[in-house]
Amino acid sequence: MHPSDLKNLKIAVVGAGYGGAAAAKALSLLGADVDVYEQANRIREVGAGIGLRPATMNRFQEWGIFDAIARVSSPSEYFEILTATAEPIMKESWPAAGGQTRTRLIHRGDFIEALLGVLPEGMVHLGHKLESVQDKGESSVLTFADGRTAEADLVVGADGIKSVVRQELFSDKGPVFSGEHAYRAVISVDDAQGMVVDDNLRMYIGRGTKVYLLPLRHRNAVSFDITALCPDSTWAPQVTKEDLLATVEGFDERLVEITRNLDMDTVNIRAVYDIDPVDTWHSGSVVLVGDAAHSMLHHQGQGANSAIEDAGALADALRQADTPREGLSLYQATRKPVTDELQRISRSGWTEDEINDVFPGQKPAAVTARG
User: Fold this and answer.
1) How far is CA 330 from CA 28, 217, 313, 323, in A?
2) Predicted model pTM
3) Which of 98, 105, 298, 300 has its CA 20 to 30 A from that of 212?
């Protein structure tokens, strides 16, 4: 689109999470008039740590916000997968992209704070819970729970796994339970039983349980995550310390001890959900990004990265196309095949037998032979 057309484009982003904040930044750099509407009265990210891949960091460099993210993150060279008793299964460097070779490990709260901190003051409007969206073809109207409305040439639905935008216009299928729970806590490095010796992510797998140790060096802390099989699909289930200990039975005693010492009041407990692939992500004036478009299980660590990539691809497509609708078609054609595959792989699981399917040829020969 011509720069003057982009400057006249009024865009409403629904949701101020990773995808919404990144989309707002990328689209505002095009010169568009962007407003972000967030249902919460204050932004608060709970949970633990994530890894921002080299391709994601390239986007931040392109948008001029690399330093803001780097200040609250720490660089990692590789990730490692081990058995429950800490025997190596595979080790792989992070996939390089452009000039970036390292993944930056960051706390979710620090990440969203940094992203929102680079948006112009007044762009984000809190306390706007979306009730409905009316697609009028050339524009769309948002109606919020308190009766307020907003009209825009383009609505970006970045409202997460329970997206109102998706349910209203693109798919009425709800989230899908994975049969797993995720238990997440941030602990001091001093409480990690000597298991954190560098800045690299490690995952221990056994009997349907995955334990992640993700160093947050910038906080002198560690993100300690357990993902375990459980039939209870309650969104925020009630779980005891004994329940957690049962998931790591037979694991390296140091991991058991970390679990035993957890303060349950600090543990974020969630049933794990994703969504089935959505056939169409856009109309003429509405488009989905991030979890609203392709919420995936966290096994690949690609949820936040995919949202950032969506934001960059959407801005690129609008810049390259002649009209907004053409831009949205190009964006979907670019991103959907990638996220469809990530959703599929993330659902395939992480049993020791499945590692070779997810990372072909990465298993050491001795481990492959052992089966």
Assistant:
1) 19, 39, 9, 11
2) 0.90
3) 98
CA 274 – CA 346 distance, rounded (Å): 10
Beta strands in the chain (DSSP E): 10-14, 33-37, 49-52, 73-76, 78-83, 88-93, 103-107, 124-125, 130-135, 140-144, 149-152, 154-157, 176-188, 201-206, 209-216, 221-229, 268-274, 286-288
**Is residue 240 within 8 Å of 149, Cβ to Cβ?**
no
For 54-89, what is each residue's pLDDT tens digit? 999 999 999 999 999 999 999 999 999 999 999 999
**3-state class (DSSP) for residue 359:** coil
Q: With the C-alpha atoms ordered 1, 283, 25, 310, is the resulting torsion angle positive or negative?
A: negative
Widest CA span of the chain, in angstroms? 64
Q: Which of 342, 295, 278, 288 is nearest to 314 (CA)?
A: 288
Between CA 124 and CA 15 the distance in angstroms is 9
CA distance 289 to 304: 11
The confidence band for 46, taking pLDDT boundaries of 50, 70 and 90, is: low
- Tokens 């935008």 locate to 165
Give per-residue pLDDT as tens, 161-195: 999 999 999 999 999 999 999 999 999 999 999 99
For the segment 247-292, what is each residue's pLDDT rounded down to a tens digit?
A: 999 999 999 999 999 999 999 999 999 999 999 999 999 999 999 9
Rounded to the nearest angstrom, the gap between the alpha carbon of residue 76 and the centroid of all alpha carbons in its chain is 18
Q: How many CB atoms lie within 10 A of CB 1?
A: 20
Structure tokens that stand for 167 in this block: 């349910």
**Nearest alpha carbon to residue 56 among 121, 92, 103, 2:** 103
Q: Which of 327, 295, 330 is nearest to 27 (CA)?
A: 327
